[in-house]
Amino acid sequence: MNAAQPMTKILVLAANPTNLPHLRLDEEIREIERGLRATRQRDRFTLVPRLATRAEDLRRAMLEVEPRIVHFCGHGTASSGVVLEDRDGKATFAPPEALADLFNLFSNQVDCVLLNACHSEPQALAIARHIPYVIGMNTAIGDQAAIKFSVAFYDALGAGRPVDWAYRYGCNAIALENLPEHLTPVLKLGPPPSKRSGVDFRTLGKMGRDEIETTLKQYKAAVAADDDDGDAHLGLGLVYLQLGMHELAIRHFRSAIDLCPEMADAYFYCALGLIRGRRPKTLAMQEVRAIEAHLTTARQLDPQQAKYDYLLAIIRYDYYLCNGLSAPPPSWQDLLLTARGKEHDAWEVERLLSAVTLRDPRLVAAIRGDPSAG
């Protein structure tokens, strides 16, 4: 049985100051809610609206609701940022840097920010320093176009589509209505999710193609922005490994090792990349030696990771034993026994087994923890 997916809370912050032109924000919220209720994944989403939003309302809602998506709807200006309300219901502005800093504090929680307000692109750029997906408007946008975009965007999310696809779907919804603002929404890609929340090779295996392509763009941008970022090189290598592009993966894993020589996972994934999806039995001795050296270093740096022992056990068994060679210690049996007392993730084990070619079901069963397989 599949584990239930976590609830995605959408915090909608609406501000309609009395001294500015009235916007149909209540209609926008109502249409979003009605659209989400009609989607097949409606049980995964909860819409939490906050009206007449003041700065203190924003701060408290972020703590209380703990949203994954934050949606601003209302007014905005290119120079002063997103409009909120003061205690008298009049317009006041959220300073762009202060708002970006607020999202930095919640960067391990929030996945997407939608600024459905005129001229909000500069604010989107500032927030995207901390949040993976931020959508802003590069000029003024009318009520009708803003509502069409929002409804279509959440329709797509409710259908299980990734954020970047939902963004394109929202733009298309504006164009289909023959409205001129279909180029007004702009998507800004921020730090890759894995740099914020520990997403790794196992999580990439759960992603669809569109999500992987978006993550690839994010990591390429991160490396381009800072070529000395070892985490970014590791992440980019993981995406290439997922795509089966082993040479590119190995190149970035080696960069991660050079930049962060204490990063155990960089050695492990470099070893996995060096196998290049082949059966270990078919490797050359020189390749095996390089793989073993990386795994030995990974085990020394982080002795509690079972996956390092599993991969080394695969090499000991499938290369040495299946080729009639004497394996250096520890033996594959000893490695599996050692691994069972360490941190073990069944999904990660499956990702490891899928990344190499193995022929012996006994070895596969032993790695999965079948006690009769040893």
Keywords:
single chain; 374 residues; alpha/beta; Rossmann fold; Serine Threonine Protein Phosphatase 5, Tetratricopeptide repeat; 2 domains; 6-stranded mixed beta sheet; 3-stranded antiparallel beta sheet; 12% strand
What does it look like?
The chain has helices at 25-37, 55-65, 96-105, 121-127, 143-158, 163-176, 193-197, 201-204, 209-225, 230-242, 246-259, 264-275, 285-301, 306-321, 332-339, 346-355, 361-368, and strands at 8-14, 45-50, 69-74, 76-77, 81-85, 91-93, 112-117, 133-137, 185-189. The protein is 52% helix and 12% strand. The chain contains 17 helices and 9 strands. The strands form 2 sheets. Strands 2-1-3-7-8-9 form a 6-stranded mixed beta sheet, sandwiched between helices. Strands 4-5-6 form a 3-stranded antiparallel beta sheet, with no helix packed on it. The protein starts with 7 loop residues before the first strand and ends in a 6-residue tail after the last helix. The chain has 374 residues and is α/β, with parallel strands linked by helices. It folds into 2 domains: 8-190, Rossmann fold (3-Layer(aba) Sandwich); 195-368, Tetratricopeptide repeat domain (Serine Threonine Protein Phosphatase 5, Tetratricopeptide repeat, Alpha Horseshoe), CATH 1.25.40.
List the helices and strands and how they pair.
Elements: E1 8-14, H1 25-37, E2 45-50, H2 55-65, E3 69-74, E4 76-77, E5 81-85, E6 91-93, H3 96-105, E7 112-117, H4 121-127, E8 133-137, H5 143-158, H6 163-176, E9 185-189, H7 193-197, H8 201-204, H9 209-225, H10 230-242, H11 246-259, H12 264-275, H13 285-301, H14 306-321, H15 332-339, H16 346-355, H17 361-368
Parallel strand pairs: 1-2, 1-3, 3-7, 7-8
Antiparallel strand pairs: 4-5, 5-6, 8-9
Helix pairs in contact: 1-5, 3-4, 5-6, 9-10, 10-11, 10-12, 11-12, 12-13, 13-14, 14-15
